[in-house]
Specification:
This protein is α+β, with helices and mostly antiparallel strands and 128 residues long. The chain has one domain: 60s Ribosomal Protein L30, Chain: A (2-Layer Sandwich), CATH 3.30.1330. The strands form two sheets. The chain has a six-stranded mixed β-sheet, covered by helices on one side. The chain starts with a strand and ends with a strand. The relative contact order is 0.24. This is 2-iminobutanoate/2-iminopropanoate deaminase. Pfam families: Ribonuc_L-PSP. Belongs to the RutC family.
Length: 128
């Protein structure tokens, strides 16, 4: 059975999807971009701040499901310009212990929703 995970501490969905779905002990998050959850407006600022907001949005969803970044087993990072990889990776790395960091792919794409620089999704597992 699936349980829909929703929190006001992350951006509200803007289409026919949910912030995350929990099934059994597995959590699947939707991709997060830099939308301020308080205003649901797109964040405009530095790449560092944009990436930080994306990670904070993911963290809010994880927390709502009773998890942390330690529960994450896989992430997908989509970026609009591979030249931004080092900056995004530096911010992303602050949220994980390098020894237990999840599997990941990083893919450059032609475009992202609202023309943002980065979108990140995660799969997490809750210890039982």
């Amino acid at each position: 059975m699936k349980k829909i995970i929703t929190t006001s501490n992350a951006p509200a969905p803007i289409g026919p999807y949910n912030q995350a779905v929990l099934t059994g002990n597995m959590l699947y998050t939707s991709g997060q971009i830099a939308i301020d959850p308080k205003t649901n407006e797109l964040f405009k600022g530095s790449l560092e701040d944009e990436t930080t907001l994306v990670m904070k949005n993911l963290e809010a969803i994880l927390n709502e499901a009773g998890m942390t970044f330690e529960n994450v087993i896989k992430t997908s990072i989509f970026i609009s310009d591979m030249n931004n990889f080092a900056v995004i990776n530096k911010i992303y790395g602050k949220y994980f212990n390098e020894d237990t960091a999840p599997a990941r792919e990083t893919v450059e794409v032609a475009n992202l929703p609202k023309f943002v620089n980065v979108e990140i999704s995660a799969i997490a597992i809750k210890d039982i």
